[in-house]
Amino acid sequence: MAAAEGCVGRAIPTEQRSPEQVTSSPEQKSPRPFEWSDLDRRAVDTARALAIDAVEAAGHGHPGTAMSLAPAAYLLFQQLMRHNPADPDWAGRDRFVLSCGHSSLTLYTQLYLSGYGLELDDLKALRTEGSLTPAHPEYGHTPGVETTTGPLGQGLGNAVGMAMAARRERGLFDPQAAPGESPFDHTVWVFASDGDLEEGISHEAGSLAGHQRLGNLVVLWDDNRISIEDDTRIAVSEDVPARYRAYGWHVQQVDWTVTGEYVEDMAALHEALSAAREETGRPSLVALRTIIGWPSPGKQNSGKIHGSALGAAEAAATKEAMGLDPRRTFDVPDEVLAHARQVGERARTDVKAWAKRYADWRAGAPARAAEFDRISVRELPAGWTDALPVFEAGGQMATRKASGEVLSALAATLPELWGGSADLAESNLTTMKGEPSFIPEELSTEAYAGHRYGRTLHFGIREHAMGAILNGIALHGGTRPYGGTFLVFSDYMRPAVRLAAMMKLPVTYVWTHDSIGLGEDGPTHQPIEHLWSLRAIPGLDVVRPADANETVVAWRTILENDDRPAGLCLSRQNLPVLDRSGASGLAPAEGAARGGYVLAEAEGGAPEVVLIATGSEVHIALDARAVLQSEGIAARVVSMPCLEWFREQSTEYREQVLPSALRARVSVEAGSALGWYQLLGDAGIPVGIDRFGDSAPYTTLYARHGFTADHVAATARASLARVAALRGER
After folding, report:
1. Is residue 463 flagged as an active site residue?
2. Residue 230, strand partner residues
3. What is the pLDDT of residues 296-329, one digit of tens each?
4. d(CA 535, CA 10)
5. In whole angstroms, what separates CA 301 from the centre of its chain?
6. What is the pLDDT of residues 501-523, one digit of tens each?
7. DSSP 235
8. CA of 347: how far to CAs of 30, 79, 114, 274, 360, in Å?
9. Buried b / exposed e across 464-489, counting CB within 10 Å, b at 16+?
10. HEC string of 213-224?
11. Which position among 169, 204, 463, 550 bears the catalytic label?
C-alpha cells in the first residue's frame, strides 16, 4: 500500500464513487462549510502519535483503530458534532458513543484535543489505576464519556436507546416544533467496528432502529476488515451495507482505498456524514473503508496492530512516516493544540443559539418547562404515591397482574415512566392502559395504535437489544424505562443488565413467569438458577414480592431509587392477597421496602424456628407456620422480597428479623438454593429446586418438588433436630 504524504490523500474523483457515495443536496449542506488545513492534518497525526505513545507507555492496549479512526473522530468533534467541552453534560449536546470501546484512545485523544479536561498526564496514565483513561471508556468516570463500552455491540444498542429517548423527550416537551427547531433536537453519533456489527446484538438493535425510523441516529462503521484473528474473511463474508439497507437504513459508503492508494478523503467523509445528519426519516450508516494502523509501515492492515503495542522500532518508523520526530513522545505542538481547542469557541456559538431556542421554549411552555426541570434531575412529583393502588385482601392475584395495575395507575402521574416488552406484553402485562405505542404512525397496528411520540415500547423478540436500549434510554437522561420478558430469558439480557449495574442506571426489568409455577411450558421456560445468578450481579436489586400489595411497595421503592437497576420477578400464577389487618396478625406490606421483615410472628412465646420465604412461596410458609403452631412449635415467617435491600438495613434491624441465636431456619424459594446458605447458618435447611423442572400443572410441580406446607413444616422439624444435635441434646 503506497504511503500517503502527511497521511492525507488527494480527494477521490466524484465519478469513481458509487451513486450512494455522493448524496448531497442544498438542504443537506452542513451549517459550517468544510475546512481542512495543514493544522488539521497535523492535529490528526498528533492524535495518532498520542495513541501510539499511550499504548507503548502502558505496554498494552489497542492502538490500530485509534490511529486509523483519528481523522474521522477529529472531523466529527471539530466540525460536525454539537458539543461543549466546557460543559460535557450540556442539555443541547449531540451524543457520541464509541461502541468499539477497546479503541478508547479514539475518544480520549479527542477529549484532550477539544479541551474536556483531559491532559497529557492522563493519556500517559492510560490503563493505570485511578486514571481518567481506563482501558475502556467508563460512564461517570471521565468527562465526555456518555456510556461504558467494551463488550462489543452494547454501545450500538445504547445509541439506539438514546435516539429513542430523544424522540420521546421531544414528544413530551416540544412536539409541535418544526424539524430542527426544537431545543430537544440533536443527533446521536456512533463509531462502530467490525466486531460491533458481528455481535448478534447489532442485528437486533439495527433492525429495531430501522423499523422505528430513527432519523437522529448516525453510525460510522469502521470497515477495516481486521480483528484479533487478523483478516475478518476467516469468519465473515456478509454484505454489511446490504444488510443495513434491508433494515431500512440510509447507507453511504466512503472508500479510502478506492484509488489503489490509501487516500484519506476528508471532504468525501464530511459530505457523507453531513448527508447522514440531514437524513431525518431513517437511521444512517456510513461505511468508511479504512486501513487499521495507518501509516505503520510494518503492522498496518494486520491483526498485530489491533490489540498490542507497536514496539519501539515500529513506533519510530510510524512517526517518521508522518513526518514527526521519532525521538519525541507525547509531543503536542502548541499551535496544534491551540488550533484544536478553537472548537470551544465554536461551541460557545452553538450554545448561544441553542440557549435562545431554549429560552423561547420555556417562555412559551412554562408548565412543560417545570416538568422538564423535574424529570431531568429524576425528581419524583409531590404526592405521586397517592396514585398507587391498594388491593383488597382475600382475593387472588398474580404479582404480574398487580404490576400491570401499578403501571397503569402511575401513567398520568409519572410521564417519565415508559417501557414495554419483548413481544410478551399480554404475558408480562407491561402495557399501561390507554397509552399509545411508540411507533411511526404509519406502522400502527389494529392491536396497538400509536405515534412516534408514544409511550408503549415494542421491542419485538429482541431481549439482548432491549437490555442495551433500556440502558441508552436511561443514559440519555430524565426518563425512567422498563422492559419485560420471562425471567428465564433474562439470560439474553445479562450483558446489558451487568452494564446497567456498573453504570448505576435506574432501569427496571419486569421479569415474569418467575418459577416452575408457570407450569406446562416446561423446563425450557422454568427458571431455576436465575434468581441467584442475577443476585450475583453487584448493584442489581432482585425483587420477588409475595403478593399484590408487596408488589406495589416494590414498585414504589424501585422508583425511589435512582442510582441502580432493579429486576421485578413476578408470578404467573395467582397468589393470595394477604390479609394484613390487625386481626390477622400479619405485618403491613410496607415492610417489603426494607427487603425483609417479620410477616408473621410466632405465637405463644419466642420463635423456635424461622421460615424465610420469597414471592409465591410466602403463603406456603404461612401455611406451614400454622401446621407447626398446631403442634406447639413457635414459628416466625419472614418475607424476604429483596436481599439487597435487606443487606442495606442496620445490623440491629437485621438481628431483630433474623436473630443470630435462632439457629433453626428454613428458606423457601422455588428456585436454586445456592445462595440461601448464607442466611441458614449451620442448622438451617433450604427448600428449593436444584434440578430442571417438568411440564405439568404448577400445582402438581409444587407438590412434586416439596413446595407444600407439610414439607416445609417437616423441614422445619429437621432443622430443629439439627440444632438439638449440635447442642448435644437428645
Report:
1. yes
2. 227
3. 999 999 999 999 999 999 999 999 999 999 999 9
4. 57
5. 33
6. 999 999 999 999 999 999 999 99
7. T
8. 15, 10, 10, 18, 20
9. bbbbbbbbbbbbbbbbbbbbbbbbbb
10. CCCCEEEEEEEC
11. 463
